[in-house]
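Mods, move this if it's the wrong board.
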Amino acid sequence: MVDDFSLENIQGVAIIRLNMMRATIKEAQAFKKIINSEIENGNKNILIDLSQCDFVDSSVLGVIVTSAKDLRSKGGDIKGIISEGSMLNMFTQTGLEKVFSHSPNQELALSSFKLSK
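Not the wrong board. Structure tokens:
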């Protein structure tokens, strides 16, 4: 499970990468702990890299939505990297793009924090 996630901090943004094709309830608890740890460490801007995922279930999406609300109430934000394909379609069709803004690559995602903060 340790290799399922990787962490990096660039320009004051905590980047959490999901290194898996399918993110399900099996990974949701560990994912939540990582995000909560970053928030507790004072990181107000978090970037979730979903570019390797083809599928994310509702438990993982719930972690993202709950964390976004928490961060925004503290003056921060959570955004994502979602490349083209099934993940992008899912976010578009479900309306999650209104709650969780995303970019197709890391460079654009990082610059979106600068523009909005």
